Request: fold
Amino acid sequence: MKRSPVLFVAALVAAGTVVFVLWPDPAGSPEGGAATGGPPAAPATAGPAAGETAPPVKLQQDVPVPEHLRNPSALDPVPLSLNLGLPPFERQEDGRIFKTDVLAAARNLHREDREAIEDLHVLDLLVGSYRAIFRENPVAPGNRQVVEALTGRNPYKLVFIDPTHPAIGPTGELVDRWGTPYRFHPISGTRMEFSSAGKDRHVGTADDVHLMRPDLEGDSGAGS
Reply:
């Protein structure tokens, strides 16, 4: 006996209704509860009430920056603060300033009644006077640049030896009493060795003359 199509359709509709009613709601209950079998929803954080100001966000405190990082020149030697209008300083019309006591000592270079080692002591006095003011020796790769620093090419335009001094040769270098340029050998920023090639005018021979201060504050040099 054949089943009626109407009864078959009715059975399908009834089965679908039962499944729809019994199937769990994944979005949770109508009251907004959590889905069946899942963890409870976290409560929402309440914001500031009307008229209230939210607390300020605490920022990281500023860390002081060391001086030598803010100013890379902070560690460089700083010249002495001088009153350049009083002796032994003498201001010139061209802006240079003569250090008269050292200029007077420089006149002893190549004196006939003195020895070559004494000439080196005069050079040491010139460079030492420069160092006492600028806290370091002239920053120079050679003789000519040292002479430039001693004749006014420095921050204060101080002159420690007259540019027309006979010991300054035509090339702008300081020469010894036999006409050979002196050798200025920097040991450090505050120490320098001075040498003359001697009477034979050849460097590295027995008659060479040398002078180097043993330390920054020493008053005596080692000569030969």
Remarks:
- The longest strand covers residues 192-196.
- Confidence is low (pLDDT under 50) at residues 28-35, 65-75, 216-224.
